[in-house]
Amino acid sequence: MKYEIKGETLPVVICYLEDGERMITEGGGMAWMSPNMKMETSSNGGIGKVFGRMFSGEKIFQNFYTAIGGKGMIAFASSFPGSIRAFDITPGNEIIAQKSAFLASESGVDCSVHFSKRFSSGLFGGEGFIMQRFSGQGTLFAEFDGHVVEYDLKAGQKIVVDTGHLAAMSSSCNMDVVTVPGVKNMLFGGEGVFNTEITGPGHVWLQTMPISNVASALRPYFPTGNND
Question: Could you tell me the pTM of the whole model?
Answer without folding.
Answer: 0.81
